[in-house]
Amino acid sequence: MAFDDKIMEKSIDPAVHQMLDRAEQLGLETVWDRYEKMLPECGFGELGVCCRNCNMGPCRISPFEDDGPQRGICGATADIIVARNLIRMIAGGAAAHSDHGRDLAHTLLLTAEGKSGGYEIKDEAKLAALAAEYGIATDQRSKEAIAEDLAKAVYAEFGKQEGPLQFTRRAPQKRVAQWQKMGIDPRGIDREIVEIMHRTHIGVDNDPVNLILQGLKASIADGWGGSMVATEISDVLFGTPMPVKSEANLGVLKEDHVNIIAHGHEPVLSEMILAAAGDPSLVANAKAAGAKGINVVGMCCTGNEIVMRHGIPLAGNFMQQELAIITGAVDAMIVDVQCIMPALGDLCECFHTRFISTSPKAKFPGAVHMQFSEESALAIAKEIVGSAVENYAHRVPEKVFIPADKTACMVGFSTEAILKALGGSLDPLLDAIKSGAVRGIAGVVGCNNPKIKHDEGHVGLVRHLIENNVLVVTTGCNAIACAKVGLMLPEAADDAGDGLKGVCKALGIPPVLHMGSCVDISRILSVCAAVANALGVDICDLPVAGAAPEWMSEKAVSIGAYVVSSGIFTVLGTVPPVLGSPVVTEVLTQAANDVVGAAFAVETDPVKAAGLMIDNIDKKRQALGI
Ligand code: SF4
Ligand code: MSK
Q1: What reaction(s) does this enzyme catalyze (predicted)?
Q2: Residue 481 beta carbon below 6 angstroms from any ligand 2 atom
Q3: Does the pLDDT of residue 1 top 80, yes or no?
Q4: What's the CA gap between 69 and 50, in Å, rounded?
Q5: Boundaries of CATH 1.20.1270.30 in the chain?
Q6: What is the ipTM of this complex?
Q7: 78-238 maps to which CATH number?
Q8: Ligand 1 pocket, mutate which of 52, 54, 80 (most atoms under 8 A from CB)
């Protein structure tokens, strides 16, 4: 179906086109409308040169040397203000990921103590492997006793005063030595975040380079700390993902079922919602209400968590959350934390949809709050699902419009799953890289952003990479974008260059591997560390590159910082608010090479961005002599 240019230019996704048209017909506002109303966005903010860190201000630095203030009231220059603002974004992102990790540690501890309401330890092999990493005895001990020690050891990582963080030692020795040399080997996860807040207070750290180093340190505490904790403990509790088939896009909603969307980030909630949705009495209630059953689907990273462990379909990525409500077919939108638009409340009021918040950390206007607690998890989850079932009767059939679009996908490529697909050893992958069949590996991750045509940055970049024999590993909203266009099917190997196509066909895998949610970028770090260790080199020597084509969140800033700090060249598809400082811009795009062996580039054109990544991969191949 063709729509007017205004709609077509907003997204590459036909389901989005239909829903935007529907929104227009119904007179409803979406994120794209609000973005347009915001234009032109504040130039000072875009450059990163406004400061509100004390009440002498707010101050803003003029980008024109001969016109307007060049210093804040305290004397801070643009370089200082930009560096402070940037690392405060890192603090926000690292805090979000790491608090997610802490919640998982909490759930593990309660489960070990027999106090959690329905969780169990599903992956004992991973529990044992992590215990060994932490030096926790496993012989003749129950899984609960081991899990209790592990949970306490992991908990301690957050409040540690002196390092190292255990998982940072998965990195090659050379990498750790470089971090130590630069003073950026993190101590405690919380400590590094707090230190950012201290240093950026008025009158503390006023050296832009010193500020950025602390930003990198906190980001490492996120990637190799809080995020890695979140990933690993989730696997212990809910199972390590293995390849599974599913479907993606708004067409996974079902007109004749109670539709529940689980949206947000932490699997602690969504796992229980799934369990509750299988409860025979709730299913019977749904049927008594005239529905054929209960259909749980996921959105954003909660979607990634449950698709890769259970094959639960993905309704869409960040920019589709409002559109899902506009289908009129969602009986409950259940949310926990992160990436949930506060706009959902008003929108739900235009439909029958019940917007249910569950975390004491995240309340929303227009939401019904049904507080979740791990101690009575299943009981509360049943109440929440019951509320969705009850709401089905309020659905207004004339308001229902579900686009038919959905695409099959194969997801769930954890590090363990990749190893299994390779036959238990990294060697086939290393051989393919050495022979050039696989030119390199790219991690493509991150959000959506209305500054970029929805999904075009993601899909355009990934397609160009696989055509050029670069194997793509992905998480977050990029993963969902790739799933929706069929890039996560083994058949998509036909879209890859000949070398990659041959490898994928031999292994029966897609050329784009779904590795999970945003915190699961830690899985990508673990794979890179394993490959580097196998080759006896540092991560910065590997033919790998990273990209976040449509990033928007503070978490993405922290991710970018820890990926670069890990030695991986990274291309950003939306411009970070740093261009107001020549010093910060130079540090991030050049000098970082001397500090951590990698740097950032900014390129809004996805094909050119892929080109930069391929150039970097080729340079690394040359240096390795392959
Ligand atoms: Fe202005 Fe300095 Fe206060 Fe920032 S910290 S608001 S630059 S006076
Ligand atoms: S959900 S952080 S919009 S990737 Fe993890 Fe998507 Fe970005 Fe949220």
Answers
A1: CO + 2 oxidized [2Fe-2S]-[ferredoxin] + H2O = 2 reduced [2Fe-2S]-[ferredoxin] + CO2 + 2 H(+)
A2: no
A3: no
A4: 11
A5: 78-238
A6: 0.95
A7: 1.20.1270.30
A8: 54
